[in-house]
């Protein structure tokens, strides 16, 4: 599930980055786009592999050590929601 969600996010982020490369945009929107891309990269490269490894252990019947990776993933999702809302507002008033 997370793999499909992250793949769609990567496609949309790439399309947005290409659009930004073709047309001038406000600096605030560019900063937010970079922050969103970094947040997504942390989720995909750092947290998701840890969560997948933990899931595999649980499926195999092993009790894994405690981890805060899931909470970190949720926190980053919340941050992305706030950044996306701000991104939309910045673009709405940039015109």
From TrEMBL:
The keyword Membrane applies. Keywords: Membrane, Transmembrane, Transmembrane helix. The keyword Transmembrane applies. The chain crosses the membrane at residues 27-47, 71-94. It comes from the Bacteria. This is Uncharacterized protein. It comes from Lentzea roselyniae.
């Amino acid at each position: 599930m997370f793999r499909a969600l992250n793949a769609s996010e990567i496609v949309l982020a790439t399309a947005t980055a290409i659009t930004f490369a073709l047309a001038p945009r406000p600096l605030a929107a560019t900063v937010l786009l970079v922050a969103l891309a970094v947040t997504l990269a942390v989720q995909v490269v750092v947290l998701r592999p840890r969560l997948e490894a933990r899931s595999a252990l649980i499926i195999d019947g092993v009790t894994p050590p405690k981890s805060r990776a899931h909470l970190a993933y949720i926190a980053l999702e919340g941050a992305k929601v706030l950044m996306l809302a701000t991104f939309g507002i910045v673009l709405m008033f940039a015109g």
